Amino acid sequence: MAAFESNTMLRAQFPTATVREALKHSIEKKAYADILDPQITVLVVKDVSVKAFMEHEADQRQPKQAVDALGDADHAPRIVSFAKWTHPVGIEDEYEELAWIWPEGTDMKILEDWTKQTQETAKKVLGSEPAYKLSFVGTDPVYTRRGAASLLVQWGIAQCQQHGKPGYLESTLEAVRLYEKHGFEAAARIELDIESDEKLGEREQYAEIGFIYRP
Ligand SMILES: CC(C)(COP(=O)(O)OP(=O)(O)OC[C@H]1O[C@@H](n2cnc3c(N)ncnc32)[C@H](O)[C@@H]1OP(=O)(O)O)[C@@H](O)C(=O)NCCC(=O)NCCS
């Protein structure tokens, strides 16, 4: 949530502080299910230094939690960055990923419209070719530009190379350079008109880029 909090698509799909708080539980449940799913690899980069842990807590301005956590600081490495890679799925595999359970207050219209756009784009770019798909990557803002996301992207690239399969992802505009740097090529632009500020009635054309990697 720290990484994606300012993302306008996330704020449009989960438009209130209450729904965004409830979303954390949905993410937690889905993350546990994904970790157990043999078709999915969830990767994390951790900072195991106690000093970094304490600095991070201070930075998040959560003094009470920082104090509570200090007791087991040695055992509490901070998650710096995470990624979710889905392994190639062929039509014959009959695999279906466990569905998300969205919190009450989710704007289902925007969520479904966006999901439809991304699915159609992936189909246009890949056809029915099975690929390694990067669904999420996020780095805690305290730790950005230190190569954490690169490690997680490189893991997928190594899988693509080892198994001779393409890699695919939808990139936020912010992350475009990251994927270009690792050899992904822009294949399509995905856009949706969304309300960026409900109070001011402002709208924006939210965009992401479909990227493909071919080993
Ligand atoms: C995009 C994001 C994942 C990058 O994570 P990171 O750990 O900082 O990435 P890295 O340190 O591995 O960056 C590697 C390279 O990517 C590029 N890059 C990364 N973030 C960038 C940014 N905000 N602006 C421009 N280039 C960027 C740079 O070329 C960088 O190399 P450099 O620091 O030597 O110039 C992180 O900023 C983030 O979580 N953003 C919010 C969520 C999001 O948009 N996720 C991507 C979903 S597709």
UniProtKB/TrEMBL annotation:
It comes from Lojkania enalia. GO terms for molecular function: acyltransferase activity, transferring groups other than amino-acyl groups. It comes from the Eukaryota. This is GNAT family acetyltransferase. Pfam families: Acetyltransf_1. The lineage of its organism: Eukaryota, Fungi, Dikarya, Ascomycota, Pezizomycotina. PANTHER family: GNAT FAMILY ACETYLTRANSFERASE, N-ACETYLTRANSFERASE DOMAIN-CONTAINING PROTEIN. InterPro entries: Acyl_CoA_acyltransferase (IPR016181), GNAT_dom (IPR000182), Trichothecene_AcTrans (IPR052523). Residues 65-202 form the N-acetyltransferase domain.
